[in-house]
Amino acid sequence: MPQIELTQLQYTYPQQSFRLAIHHQVLSDSLIALVGQNGAGKSTIFKLLTGLLTADSGSIKINHQELSDLTPKQRLKLIGITFQNPDDQLFNATAQKEVEWSLSQVMANKQQITLKAKAALAKVGLEQQAGENPYDLSLSERKRLTVATVLAVDPLVYLFDEPLMSLDWYSKQMMTKIFHQLAASGHQIITITHDMDWAAAEFESLSVMANGHFKFSGTPKAFFSNRSLIQEVGLLPPKIMTIAEKLGDSRPYLSVEDYYRQHSK
Ligand SMILES: Nc1ncnc2c1ncn2[C@@H]1O[C@H](COP(=O)(O)OP(=O)(O)O)[C@@H](O)[C@H]1O
Ligand SMILES: [Mg+2]
After folding, report:
1. Is 62 in contact with 97 (CB distance < 8 Å)?
2. What PANTHER family does this protein's entry cite (predicted)?
3. 234 dihedral zone (left: phi>0; alpha: psi -120 to 50; beta)
4. From CA 213, how far away is CA 84, in angstroms rounded?
């Protein structure tokens, strides 16, 4: 299982008061939801992990390899990202070319690139849209296209920045299934999300950030059992917990199924 280790990591944006400071943090679970209020530093961590930003000091190791020692190609094979806004990422004339471009950064065989791109588009349900301009696709489809660009390259670690944002129900189901399949095949998936219902129900592990620090790392059950911590970091529990609490039951529940299981015993 891949492992990310951050040690004494510091980063500040020029002329900004925000400061990311991580003493020591290991991320080793296969399915991690990274949560926290807006401005907590979640996207900044992703940018540091992919080399889009360079830390002021400290170390980032992926599977014991220092990130800064890797060539760009090695890095792309190790860790891939989709941005929050697909328009920051997409620039090719067709969906097919978009995925092919990502592949061309890590391999040379044109025939293989074409085949792999087709397969990745099919995985996200965009095979019919291969010839379309990304800007003619819906936002939900553009989000899925960015996922295809990473699936094609198939890095060991996948970072998704708010992948469910503006997705329709069908696409959300599809993404959730893809994430579980990736985790089952030995990949690590870290996804930033504001959807606590989704994070609680589907993720093995929760990492919580506030003000440029990690405040918690552990199971969703452990986090949502700690009411004062939930409040301190400015998050909301899953809806099912709010309903249960209104009914006088303040125990932690991760989903409707979890509630049902605990009550049907
Ligand atoms: N490119 C940038 N230049 C200056 N400040 C930035 C930039 N990107 C983010 N910030 C600031 O850094 C802080 C953390 O941002 P970010 O990592 O995007 O938070 P999150 O993803 O958790 O919402 C915020 O205060 C934000 O305003
Ligand atoms: Mg963000």
Report:
1. no
2. HEAVY METAL TRANSPORTER
3. left
4. 21
Q: What is the 3-state secondary structure (H, E, C) of 122-154?
A: HHCCCHHHCCCCHHHCCHHHHHHHHHHHHHHHC
Region 173-191: what's the mean pLDDT?
96
Which of 229, 221, 230, 227 minimizes the C-alpha distance to 254? Answer: 221
The preferred substitution site among 10, 43, 213 for testing ligand 1, maximizing ligand atoms within 8 Å of CB, is 43
Closest CA to 49 of 180, 207, 196: 207
Residues 6+ apart with CB under 8 A from 110: none
Q: Which atom of ligand 1 is nearest to the CA of 47?
A: 17
**CA dist., res. 40 & res. 204, Å (int):** 21
Whole-angstrom Cα distance, residue 60 to residue 64?
A: 9
> pLDDT-based confidence at 17, cuts 50/70/90?
confident
The pLDDT confidence band at residue 2, using thresholds 50, 70 and 90, is confident
